[in-house]
Please model this.
Amino acid sequence: MKPPTTSHVSCHTPGDSGRKVSLTVLPGGGKVKKSRMGPRRAYVLLAVHVAVAVHVGLWYASGRGDGVRETLSPIEPSETMYTLNNGMLNAGVIFFALSLLSTVILGRWFCGWACHMVAMQDACGWAMKKLGVHPKPFRTRLLVLGPTVLALYMFAWPTFHRWVLTPVLGEWIPLWMGRSMRWPGMVNHVIVEDFWATFPPWYIAVPFMMVCGFVTVYFLGAKAFCTYGCPYGALFSPLDRLAPARIVVDENCHQCGHCTAVCTSNVRVHEEVRDFGAVVDPGCMKCMDCVSVCPNGALSFGFAKPAVLIKPKHDAKAADNAKLRAARYDLSLRQELVLLVAFVALMFSVRGMLHSVPLLMAAGLASIATWGLWKTWSILTLPNVRAQNVQLKLKGRVKPAGFVLAAATLVMVAASVWSAWVRWQVSASEIAQYKMASTPAGDFSRVISAGFSAGATEKELAEEIVRRVSLARPRSEGGLGWKVDAGTELRFAHAKAVLGDLQATQDAFERVLAAQSPQDLFTAAQWMGVMAARKYTPEQMVARIDELFATHPTAGAVRLAKATLLAQLGRIPESNAALNSSFYAAAATDVATQMEATRILLLAGQVAGARERLDAAVAARPRSADLRFARARASLVADDSGSAERDLREALRLEPRHSASLMMLAQLLEQKGKLPEAQILRDRAKAASGTVETQPPGQY
Model:
């Protein structure tokens, strides 16, 4: 490598401090060329988005025949959480695992060539340059640990909680840390029906893309979300240091700095190759822009020692360079430590605000708010402050832009504090409910039965739940928060029942059922129980159903309840009509409603009708173990044990721990004299039945 001829100049920085610094001017070697790899990478990333659109299109088109849509589960790394938490083996975790394995060989290529968020950040950076705006990267040492905190929370903490913390501490774990379910076993979830179940709605997804793909770039620099908010990058980075493939240099390097000028990953490429002979910074996303613009062809993507084994070429010189790098950071270590704490607090506070802010969006918002806190503090303490191309304060005088930025930062912080307070009220009500679950009042059916009287402790817990939930409600309902979700509303209903206010309990159930589409069977049954406890007759219950759902004609559990009530009144034709109307789209009706409706048909002696319904349901959802079990039950009623056995075995192939199918097949095999296999199935059923627990507060 040929040493460069350099010159030095002194100037005042236009940034926060206005301090005088010495800059090294590298020989230019002519104008920096445009990267040839930029357009190629843009085409690849565009193809990624086309593939996403095709994926969604195939899912939507799959439901045109019977209303049941199904496709490959989302190919998104965050789906890994559902595998770790619930044993749902999906396409996302498979894709993420393959990406991590490839990173061990090729380095951090995925971020540069396959990530849709990188595409948006690059598009934002390109548009800004066209407008003459060149975002300055926010350089820190500790805040880059934010994604690591997020990755540990998403991927390590739930597993540690289940397999280490819970066995060691048991019930000694503080309730605010939650309780873990037992490991449910692995279930095939590669093909799904509800493609959007784990995604936010479009009106959240669009702001998320804008915040994390565009706004972060303006305030924090190119690929800012990758640096300060992406948990996947936190896993790719350490693996990159083990990879043999990386950007390497030969003796033709003249240290012109063109490579660093075009790098959108904020890597000081010319320093990396000078000091190490290769790029060892794990922030390198293998975009290849630096290779493309090198005027001497000195850079290439090749194989070398892993970064963990590469030592600086000259220790003394490397020490000097380390000091120069430290001088480039925007904050002191003490300031960074304070801001790291602020970032983590803001991220977990704003997450879930208005039931809308997902975790990664919270990370993006927190990074912007943290940057805003730094700039606001700089406005208060320094004479000159800039934010990218905008002067916030000059010679001790705060500019209008400075006031706007400080006010916006305070609003974001205040919103985060408000969100944290509201979410704490909901969490505190969950903790109180969990405590009450171990008392007689924890059994809702017992609470609404005649003669129940709550004890002092139970009433105290119920009053706390009511108080907390009331505070968490929106101002229009007397609270200081936002509209509560169904789980919180049902918690409120239970607490009101403990306190003897069954009218408020019924009202809460009706608010939940009116918002559900379709309604939950268990919730509808509890609602019926409350009305029965209030001495409603079947005629009055039917009238109340008609009154409540006159403007809410969604089919499902409530119509099934109406069918049952009409049958009790002897109004069989009306009961059958209500039963049939509960299937709002034939086979597309939710599985729980299908099962309960066909059970009622079987009880009414309509075996052929039940089997016809289940044949259509299984044809639409051939991978549903529950529907296979329901059809097997109908087959047994029809004395068709052969069909029943086939369905039960298929149900267990789809879901090996399906306890109801295990027990039914064991009984069927015993009747056929296959006792050894039946005993094996009974043992499996016993093991499976011990894997499900009530989910306490804080389930991850």
